[in-house]
Amino acid sequence: MDGFFITFEGMDGAGKTTQSRYLRDYLERKGYTVVFTREPGGTPIGEQIRDILLDPSNAGMSEITEALLYAAARAEHVRELILPSLQKGFIVISDRFLDSSIAYQGYGRNLGNLVTEWNEAAVQNVSPDVTFYLDLSPEEGISRVEARTDGKPDRMEQEEASFKKRVYQGFQSLAKENSGRIVRIDGSMKPEEIRDLIFAAVDERMLQR
């Protein structure tokens, strides 16, 4: 597998989508073929699952159903898009991947290691070469989401503060346990400052390959 897999992680409102788009444009200007995608989603089936997961009218969804739907969307994502793109030597940038499930469902929903077990088949041994974790407090994330959604947050964004604090602790733990892969960046910095740090880190890691 000759491609390069980059993921962005963090709380809602941390700026993952903005930074991943900055990076896509930067790498395309350098002549790379870049596949830009997101989770849940990235494929026709994945996008349909995304609609179910984020629909506020599905507020009563069980935590097990939620976790399995994320895993199902990821299985399609890896099989149809991520793995074939990496095998072609492309750079894949994904806004969220397995770390999000571990943080949101493993920690946030208190499902623990079940989330990792359920995703083993879905990821097919695919792991990011580098993950950028935009570290932003739950409180600041909530404030940004409220401003962005104009009072109409999706199902996950509507979750209570205690849930988001558990998710945040999950991301913090993942960053510590996977320091070789996960690059922690202060999400409260200016977007341009974050962008430049990411560009430098990607250039360095790709040169090491």
Set out the fold topology:
Elements (H helix, E strand, L loop, with lengths): L3 E7 L5 H14 L4 E5 L5 H11 L8 H25 L3 E5 L2 H11 L5 H10 L6 E6 L2 H12 L11 H17 L4 E5 L4 H17 L2
Parallel strand pairs: 1-3, 1-4, 2-3, 4-5
Helix pairs in contact: 1-8, 2-3, 3-5, 4-5, 4-7
The sequence of SSEs as H and E is EHEHHEHHEHHEH
Distance between the termini: 12 Å
Average pLDDT works out at 94
Q: Provide the helix percentage.
A: 55-70%
Classify the oligomer: single chain
Largest sheet: 5 strands, parallel
What would the principal axes of the Cα set say about the shape? globular
Strand content is 5-15%
Low-confidence regions? none
Per DSSP, the total helix count is 8
Helix/strand-derived category reads alpha/beta
Number of E strands: 5
Task: Describe the strand arrangement of the main beta sheet, using strand numbers.
Answer: 2-3-1-4-5
Nearest-angstrom radius of gyration?
A: 16 Å
Note down, in words, how this protein is organized.
The structure is a single chain. With 209 residues, the protein is an alpha/beta fold. The protein is built from eight helices and five strands; from the N terminus they run βαβααβααβααβα. It has a five-stranded parallel sheet with strand order 2-3-1-4-5, with helices on both faces. Helix 3 packs parallel to helix 5 and helix 4 crosses helix 7. The longest helix is centred in the middle third of the chain and has 25 residues.
